[in-house]
Write a structure and sequence with these properties.
By secondary structure, the chain is mainly alpha-helical. It has 2 domains: about 45 residues; about 110 residues, AhpD-like (Up-down Bundle), CATH 1.20.1290.10. The chain contains 9 helices and no strands.
């Protein structure tokens, strides 16, 4: 059964992890939800305990957040696009399109927040700022987030979402997606 989970060497920078019960469970979860095993899951399964902890951490942030699903989708799509991550841009662009429309999602991926609410547009802008230079945001940028209705807690949550997406994408892209560089 282990061979059924293997990628060909040209598909990944790092080899597949040894298949044990925790790896099999992660792969089976992907197969059940997506119909295939995600490249990101393959990479993270070198440490399935870290994958589980990271997923729990992100879920805890999401579950305790007052940010709407559409706000999160706009923020993560903008983050992925600013980072130049085609896989996450596609996934989160599609999610944003489901919550808004295709034209709005396409504009967000191109760096244009028109079609978004003032809060969503501010989050998309904040996301791009943090991705492109995490030291660049100023007090005025934070004040703008407050002006459109974000609490300091929500600003923290948004920044944490962006940081988590960057960490996830960095590990995945630099380990799994050799095709990203082609």
């Amino acid at each position: 059964m282990e061979d059924a989970y293997r990628m060909t060497p040209s598909q990944a920078f790092v080899s597949d992890p040894p298949v044990d019960a925790s790896v099999t469970a992660a792969y089976e979860d992907d197969l059940a939800s997506d119909g295939y095993i995600n490249n990101s899951t393959r990479v993270w399964c070198w440490r399935p305990d870290v994958l589980a902890s990271f997923q729990t951490l992100r879920a805890g942030l999401r579950d305790g957040s007052d940010l709407s699903g559409r706000e999160v989708a706009a923020m993560v799509a903008a983050t992925a696009a600013a980072r130049g991550d085609p896989y996450c841009s596609l996934a989160w662009g599609a999610r944003l399109a489901e919550l808004s429309d295709e034209a709005t999602a396409a504009r967000v991926l191109q760096g244009d927040p028109s079609g978004l609410s003032s809060r969503e547009a501010a989050l998309a802008r904040w996301s791009r700022q943090v991705v492109l230079d995490s030291n660049a945001p100023t007090q005025a940028d934070v004040d703008h987030l407050r002006d459109v209705g974000f609490s300091d807690r929500e600003i923290f949550e948004a920044t944490a979402f962006i940081a988590f997406r960057l960490a996830f994408s960095t590990i995945t892209t630099h380990s799994a997606h050799s095709q990203t560089r082609n």
